[in-house]
Amino acid sequence: MMCALLARELRLAWRSGAEILNPLWF
Fold first, then answer.
1. Which long-range contacts (CB under 8 A, 24 or more apart) does 16-23 make?
2. What is the largest CA-CA distance in the chain?
3. In this predicted structure, what is the pLDDT of residue 17?
4. 15 near 25, Cβ under 8 Å?
5. Would you say 19 and 26 are in contact if contact means Cβ atoms under 8 Å apart?
6. Model-wide pTM > 0.70
7. Confidence (pLDDT) at 19
8. Closest by CA position to 14, among listed 2, 25, 1, 3
9. Which letter does DSSP use for residue 24 in this model?
10. Alpha helical stretches, state H, the chain
11. Which pLDDT score is estimated for 25?
């Protein structure tokens, strides 16, 4: 359960950070 929540939060944080750094990735 905790791993799933952490993975989701990390994924959201990575996505927002990637959008700021490199929007062409997604």
1. none
2. 32
3. 79
4. no
5. yes
6. no
7. 78
8. 25
9. G
10. 2-21
11. 60
Cα separation of 1 and 16, whole Å? 23
DSSP 15: H
- Tell me which residue has tokens 């490199």: 22
Q: Are 25 and 18 in contact (CB under 8 A)?
A: yes
Q: Rounded distance, CA 20 to CA 10, Å?
A: 15
Distances (CA, A) of 21 to 5, 12, 16: 24, 14, 9
pLDDT in tens, 1-26: 688 888 899 898 888 877 777 766 65
> pLDDT value at position 14?
84
Output the six-digit token pair for 7.
Answer: 């993975």
